[in-house]
Every structure is written in structure tokens, then in C-alpha cells.
Design brief:
The strands form eight sheets. Strands 13-14-12-15-16-11-17 form a seven-stranded parallel β-sheet, sandwiched between helices. The protein has a six-stranded parallel β-sheet with strand order 18-28-27-19-26-25, sandwiched between helices. Helix content is 34%, strand content 23%. The relative contact order is 0.07. By secondary structure, the chain is α/β, with parallel strands linked by helices. The structure holds adenosine-5'-diphosphate and zinc ion. The site of zinc ion (ZN) has 8 residues, from loops.
């Protein structure tokens, strides 16, 4: 009796997170036919309500009998996409950032993987019958003929028949029963790439008489054991046909095998590790002692060019020697290429690179190599903190102060912070490195949470650049280029060019004119969708919004008064570029900002130009400030240091200091010393003075007092709730309702009231972005646990409010962007 046998058999139960906005995990039973394929870290298809969705296998608890559970429908992966040891990490993130577990995992995995269910139209028997009879309109016949070979979604069908499908026709065909609607699982766009490979079989071929070509193939295989059809075709052009025949007579076997797409260009020459300086040696020894033994967080501070990267390289080698794996986080794609070059010349092909500049296929392949343990070093931007490696020994966060470690969409995590968490869970070393550490990390070092190690000198005792501050207030009445270029800067620039050295000009704002104003009515040109002034871009001859991408022709009349007299006030990198081209017509000038590096590969091209000397002057935004190491750059000009100082954000001073110190550090990295001309309207501001002296400690001492007085992080933690939507009134009401709910919760619980400060609801500083009106509520608390419990409770008690469709509520834990 088969039914009874099944009843008595123990069922396998698994714990699953689904890729939906739901909290918690779910249990499913595994049918016998899938049992062998189930493993933690694999994606599966499960029924959920009336849908079928992607789930992630978290674990296999001990066998329990429970027949009421729903069954797993399918297993999507051959091998796990992440190790089981990452599950506690995902759970921690879900908890801390108050984000659904399945969506945390989805966010962590390389894009394009998640399968989704799709409604498709399928031709029925009845439809086939009528099609044969031909009693229908040409349109109907075209549709049915197209559906003859495959079921298609409405969108795919319209694409195939190259015209829109009128709803009336579709409905009529459904009603007549010619087609029916079905659900189909659509696989994600990214799949492992498989190629045909040819292998030898056991079949004796020596005594058989073979054609010359067949013999050539067999001999080839005897040498190489296996060969891809693609490679064989290069040796034997007719291979596809012959191999097919050989396979059917059993002489060879053809099988599909996964191949890795290679995201890298040329192989890099191996370097020899330099012998470390005494400072480096001591640091490496200190860290090495703890590796593989216990969780040990370090803050490595050291001026630019002091040899931090060399410390990473040596420690990575030590980690590999202990058979542990390494994760290296770098803030930007442009810097990854540099880190990659250094690691590749030391470790050859033993590294995997993960960042958004790779195609989804390349990224998936790199991911799989890590997940399978074939490669133990992962280098990448913030998402590489999720690299699926086991047995972590070392996580490095380079330029740890960089705000691009914070993700500002969907899951609002900070890669630097969760790198620490991951290291802790693995008893690994976490090494945060920076020339200008964040106040947060510096504070952790000061209070003993992290161990501080410092590199105090540049390698070979190269001098830090001399920084000259120039007061811009004296230049307000100047005309033309003299408004932007002080005498000091011009002189240095000319001298640098005469010496055939390179210069960087830094201005943290792109475009040509940042403040287009109507000369007739005095109104700013504002974005239609945002509460923000448009920027004029000369090359495009267009006004553009830097937040939503809205664009308007450069010959526009004033939208308010209709007069064509728009004045281009304000300036940006594009204007500086135009001026510099005029001043130095014989020099090669390049610009690096978000406008010029939109294309894949354009950053690399600019960096290559800097490296080979074909660029004399590089103008750019903060992109040029970071980490680049080119010995022939001897001048850095900071056109206006004040742009980030005026942000209404408690970190404005910190970020300005970091940016200025970093960009200054680009000068004089080679044998010749460098100089920096820093132009500012606030020559006495302490962020600017500390940047001049490159004095991290002095800056910290002043800034930390200010933070303490106002109870800002690191003395408190913050959570920001953003409420946004397209309907201004609804958003306003929603924010007020949420504010009331917050107050109720305070009224009901004393411990919340006593430890948490609520600010708002108020309209956000950027009150409208991309057609969405925005309000915010900010919470500040001295006890992280209580603050988080408060927000959790708020979410649970006000679920309908928090999950409203028209007004979106976003929770940002430890916010960075507070505008
Ligand atoms: P950082 O990461 O602090 O900016 P790097 O590690 O890039 O510094 O070092 C700056 C330069 O000095 C690099 O060109 C590097 O190759 C070189 N360097 C680093 N350590 C040593 C060493 N011990 N001996 C000689 N050169 C070194
Ligand atoms: Zn806009």
C-alpha cells in the first residue's frame, strides 16, 4: 500500500526565507525526489499563498514528521550560492536594519538571479483546431501561429508580432477558449555559462581505422583529456560535425560543462614583495598573532602613501597560508582596479572581483568560484561584504571613512559596519584602514573597542605636500577666470606644466553652471520633479537635474515669465574645464565626474591616461580625491573647498576634512614633493585648518567635543524614517499620523520616553525628489537596544501605516544621507 508507506516515512523539513517583504522564516517539507538536491544556500521554488516564489534554504533541522507542511516544488541551483555559515550574518542584518530576511539574501546575491512567476498565454487544442480551419481574422491567425511553438507573456507576444495587442482581441480569444492563461516560472536572466566539452571514452580506438581528422581529434584528447568544442574548432574547423558523428559511434563523449567568463584584461606581471619598513613589520606581526584565533578589530591609520596597501597584501598572504579566506572592500570601482592590480601582481589568479561594473554573467561566475571555495580572496565594492566565502580570516575595509559604503536604496546597510559583524561571527581579523578615519572608528579606537595601529610616515620619507590656503573672499569682484583662479593657483599651475608634471583640479560639483537664474524675473530654474535647482551642462546644451535626471533644452525660456534671458550663475567642473582649456590650449586636459564616466571603461581610460602621462591636467569631483597613486602629480588645486561645508548635516565638517585631506594626498606621491593650493571662503574653519596640517588627531579632538555636546553619533545612535509619495497631501497626513503613533508609543512606555529623542515629523530638506514628496522623522537614542526595540514595536503596532501602498515608509538605521 504505497499511501501508507509514505505516511510512515519520516519527512525532511527545511527552514526557508522567501524573497518577499515578509519577516520570519518558513518551514517546508522536501519531497523524496528532491531530497538529494536540497542543501543550505541553494535557491528553491516554493508555494507561498497562491503564488510560487523563490526561497533560500537556510538549514535542515533534524527530521521531524509533519505532513501538513507545503512541499518544495523545485531546486534551482546545482551548488549552494552561499555557505550555511552566512545564515547568522543574514539574520543579524535583517534584525538590525529591520529588513525582511529573504530580501536581505536577495540583495546580497549577485543581481539577475531571482526567478519570478509570469503569466503567459498558451494555445489550446481548440485554438489549434480553429487555426487549421482558418476561420478567423489575420490578426488572430498571426497571434495563434506565434503561440504555436511556445507560450508567451503578453509583452513577449507583442514584441514577436511587432504590434500592440488590443485587449478586446485578447479577451475574445480567451473567452472562445482558443488560448488560456497559465503561470510559468521565468528563470532569472543570469545563469552559469555552459559550453560543450569533448571527452575520450573507454572505447578502444587504437585498432580501428580512423580518418585523418578523427585521429587528430583523438590524439588531441589523449594529450589534453578534454577540450571545449570552441577550442577544438580552432584546430579542426569541421569539428562540430565530426564530433557529432564520433559521439554517436561512441568514440568520444560530449557533455556540457560550466566555463568561467573572465572579467580581466591582460595578465599582470608578478611583483616581489618589498621588505617591510619597521612600522609595517610591527603592525603585520601584531595582527598576525591574533589571526585565526579570535575576533580582533584594528584601525590602521596612516597618511596617504604610507604603505597601508602593502600591509593588506602581507596579511592576505598570511591568511591564505592558514587556509582561511580574505575579503577586501574598496569604496569605488575606480579604486578596485588599482587594488586589483596590486593583488593580482602578488597573487595572480587567486582573486575574485565583485562590483557593479561587471556584467551580471561575469559577476555570477566570480561569485560561484568563491562559493565553491576555488578562490579565497574576494575584492570588491560594498556588496563584496557578502562574498560567499567560508572560514574568513581577514576582512579589510580600505578608506573606511568613505560614505559610499552606505547603501542608500532598498536595504540601507553600511558595509563597513557589517564587515565588523561578519568578522566577529567568524573570529576573524577586521582591519579598517584610512588616512582620515571616520569619527566613529576613531572613537572606537580611542575607547579601546578597536586596536589602533598607525603608519606615521610616507614610504621613503616622502614629504607630505605643502598646503597653501587662499582666501576667496578677496576675489569676489574679479571677472572672468580670475574669479575662480587665484594668482597663487595660476602660478603653480603654470610652473607644474613647465616642468612637465601633472596637476589635479578638484571641485565637488559637476556641470557648467549650478545656478541658472532668469535675468528678467529672478526665478531659479527648478527641476519639474524635485525641489532642487537645475544645472546647466554646456556640452549637452541642456539643464539637468542631478537627482532625477530630468533634462530641459538649453534654449528654454524662463518657465515663470516666458522671457529668454537665463543667466548662468554658479559653476561646476565643466566650467573649470572650459577655462583651463582656454588657459592651456597645448595641454591635454581631461575631466572625471559622473558625466564623463557614464560609460563602462571610461574611468579606466582616464586612469590609464594619468598613468602613462597623456593627461596633463585632470579636473574632477570627489572621484579624483580617492586613493589614486600617480607619482607625477605634483599639484592639487582645490577650486572651492566650501561646497560640502554648508550642508545641513552634522557630518558636514567631518566629510569636508576627509575630502580635503584625501584630495591633497594625491600630490607628491613620487620622488618630487607636491604642493596644494586650497581656495576657500572660510580660511579659519577648523575642518580646513586641520586638513592643511593633515592632522587627524587635532580634528578628532575638536569634532568629538561638538558631537558630545549635541549628543550626536558616536555618542548616540540614530534611526531615520522617511515617508514619501506622489501625493503631497497624503504624504503630509501620513507623516502626521506616523508622528502621532510615535508619540503614543512614547506615552505608553517610560523607558522609551526617557532614552529616545524624536525630531519631526518635518518636511525633509530635499522636500521633493523624483516627483515624490518627502517627510522625515529622526530618532536619536543613547541605548541602541532600546532605540531599535522602539522602532520594531512601532512597525509591528502600525503595520497598515508602514505598509501603505501610496505612501512608502523607509527605515534607515544609522543614516548617513539625512536630507
Ligand atoms: P597607501 O595604501 O597607504 O596609500 P601604499 O601601500 O600604496 O600606501 O604604498 C605607497 C607606495 O609605496 C606604493 O608604491 C608601494 O608599492 C610602496 N611601498 C609600500 N611599502 C613599501 C616598502 N616596505 N618598501 C618599499 N616600497 C613600499
Ligand atoms: Zn529632478
Amino acid at each position: 500500500m504505497p499511501y501508507k508507506m509514505q505516511m510512515s516515512k519520516e519527512k525532511k523539513i527545511i527552514d526557508v526565507a522567501v524573497a518577499l517583504p515578509v519577516y520570519g522564516t518558513y518551514s517546508y517539507s522536501v519531497p523524496d525526489n528532491l531530497s538529494a538536491m536540497i542543501a543550505p544556500g541553494k535557491r528553491i521554488i516554493v508555494p507561498f499563498g497562491r503564488r510560487r516564489v523563490t526561497g533560500y534554504v537556510l538549514g535542515i533541522p533534524d527530521q521531524i514528521s509533519d505532513l501538513s507542511l507545503k512541499k518544495v516544488l523545485d531546486v534551482l541551483d546545482d551548488g549552494p550560492l552561499f555557505p550555511e555559515s552566512m545564515v547568522p550574518f543574514f539574520k543579524w542584518i535583517s534584525d538590525y536594519y529591520m529588513y525582511p530576511l529573504g530580501q536581505v539574501i536577495k540583495n546580497a546575491l549577485p543581481g539577475g538571479l531571482t526567478t519570478a512567476e509570469q503569466k503567459v498565454l498558451t494555445l489550446t487544442h481548440k485554438g489549434r483546431h480553429f487555426l487549421k480551419q482558418g476561420i478567423m481574422t489575420t490578426m488572430e491567425a498571426t497571434i495563434l501561429n506565434t503561440l504555436k511553438t511556445e507560450s508567451l507573456s503578453l509583452k513577449a507576444l507583442e514584441k514577436k508580432i511587432q504590434q500592440p495587442l488590443p485587449t478586446a482581441i485578447a479577451l475574445a480569444m480567451l473567452e472562445r477558449g482558443w488560448v488560456c492563461r497559465e503561470k510559468k516560472i521565468r528563470s532569472g536572466k543570469t545563469q552559469a555559462k555552459k559550453e560543450k566539452f569533448i571527452f575520450l571514452t573507454d572505447k578502444e580506438t587504437d585498432k580501428v581505422k580512423l580518418s585523418k581528422t578523427r585521429k587528430k581529434i583523438i590524439d588531441y584528447l589523449k594529450n589534453e583529456h578534454e577540450v571545449s568544442l570552441k577550442a577544438l574548432k580552432k584546430v579542426v574547423p569541421t569539428a562540430p560535425k565530426i564530433v557529432k558523428a564520433m559521439a554517436s559511434s561512441g568514440q568520444v563523449r560530449v557533455d556540457r560543462k560550466q566555463v568561467y567568463r573572465d572579467p580581466f584584461g591582460e595578465p599582470v606581471k608578478r611583483d616581489t614583495p618589498p621588505s617591510l619598513t619597521n612600522e609595517q613589520k610591527q603592525i603585520v606581526a601584531k595582527i598576525q598573532k591574533l589571526m585565526g584565533i579570535k575576533f580582533a578589530p584594528f584601525l590602521l591609520s596612516g597618511v596617504t602613501g604610507s604603505g597601508k596597501t602593502e600591509v593588506y597584501l602581507q596579511l592576505a598572504l598570511e591568511t591564505l597560508n592558514q587556509d582561511l579566506s580574505v575579503i577586501i572592500l574598496v569604496p569605488e570601482i575606480a579604486l578596485i582596479s588599482q587594488m586589483e592590480r596590486r593583488f593580482r601582481s602578488r597573487f595572480g589568479n587567486q582573486i575574485a572581483i565583485l562590483h557593479s561594473g561587471l556584467s551580471s554573467g561575469e559577476r555570477f561566475d566570480q561569485w560561484l568560484k568563491l562559493a565553491r571555495g576555488e578562490i579565497k580572496i574576494a575584492i570588491g565594492a560594498r556588496s563584496a561584504v557578502f562574498a560567499p566565502v567560508k572560514n574568513i580570516g581577514l576582512i579589510v575595509v580600505d578608506e573606511e571613512h568613505d560614505t559610499s559604503y552606505k547603501q542608500e536604496t532598498s536595504l540601507h546597510y553600511n558595509a563597513r559596519d557589517i564587515a565588523i559583524v561578519r568578522a566577529k561571527q567568524h573570529n576573524a581579523v577586521a582591519l579598517l584602514g584610512s588616512a582620515t578615519p571616520s569619527i566613529q572608528s576613531y572613537h572606537n579606537a580611542m575607547t579601546g573597542k578597536y586596536t589602533q595601529v598607525s603608519l606615521t610616515r610616507r614610504i621613503l620619507n616622502r614629504r607630505l605636500p605643502d598646503i597653501t590656503i587662499v582666501d576667496l573672499c578677496g576675489m569676489r569682484d574679479q571677472r572672468g577666470y580670475r574669479r575662480y583662479f587665484s594668482k597663487e593657483l595660476l602660478l603653480e599651475l603654470e610652473n607644474t606644466m613647465k616642468r612637465n608634471e601633472q596637476a589635479i583640479l578638484f571641485l565637488n560639483r559637476r556641470g557648467f553652471a549650478s545656478l541658472p537664474i532668469c535675468g528678467a524675473c529672478g526665478k531659479h530654474l527648478q527641476c519639474k520633479n524635485c525641489d532642487i535647482s537645475l544645472t546647466y551642462h554646456q556640452q549637452l546644451n541642456a539643464y539637468r537635474c542631478h537627482y532625477c535626471g530630468f533634462s530641459m533644452s538649453g534654449s528654454t525660456k524662463c518657465p515663470s515669465c516666458g522671457i529668454a534671458d537665463i543667466r548662468h550663475l554658479g559653476f561646476g567642473t565643466e566650467k573649470i574645464e572650459t577655462i583651463v582649456r582656454g588657459l592651456f590650449p597645448d595641454k591635454n586636459i581631461a575631466r572625471m565626474d559622473r558625466d564623463t564616466v557614464a560609460h563602462k571603461g571610461s574611468v579606466l581610460k582616464i586612469l590609464k591616461g594619468l598613468n602613462d602621462g597623456s593627461i596633463d591636467i585632470l579636473i574632477g569631483t570627489q572621484m579624483v580625491a580617492k586613493g589614486h597613486d600617480y607619482p607625477n602629480i605634483t599639484l592639487v588645486g582645490i577650486i572651492c573647498a566650501d561646497l560640502s561645508l554648508s550642508f545641513p548635516d552634522f557630518r558636514a565638517g567631518e566629510q569636508t576634512f576627509q575630502l580635503l585631506a584625501q584630495v591633497s594626498g594625491r600630490a607628491g606621491r613620487g620622488d618630487r614633493s607636491g604642493s596644494v593650493i586650497l581656495q576657500t571662503y572660510n580660511p579659519k574653519h577648523f575642518s580646513i585648518l586641520c586638513a592643511k596640517h593633515q592632522n587627524v588627531h587635532q580634528f578628532y579632538d575638536q569634532e568629538i567635543t561638538f558631537r558630545k555636546d549635541l549628543n550626536y553619533p558616536p555618542f548616540s545612535r540614530m534611526v531615520q524614517i522617511i515617508v514619501s509619495g506622489r501625493d503631497k497631501t497624503k504624504v503630509n497626513h501620513h507623516a502626521q499620523a506616523l508622528g502621532t503613533a510615535c508619540k503614543t508609543l512614547f506615552a505608553n512606555e517610560k523607558k522609551f520616553r526617557e532614552t529616545i529623542v524624536m525630531m519631526g515629523p518635518i518636511e525633509a530638506p530635499y522636500a521633493k525628489i523624483a516627483s515624490r514628496y518627502r517627510w522625515q522623522i529622526l530618532f536619536k537614542g543613547n541605548q541602541t537596544g532600546l532605540l531599535h526595540r522602539y522602532i520594531h514595536k512601532l512597525m509591528v503596532l502600525n503595520a497598515p501605516l508602514m505598509n501603505n501602498r501610496q505612501v512608502k515608509t523607509t527605515i534607515d538605521v544609522d543614516p548617513v544621507f539625512m536630507m
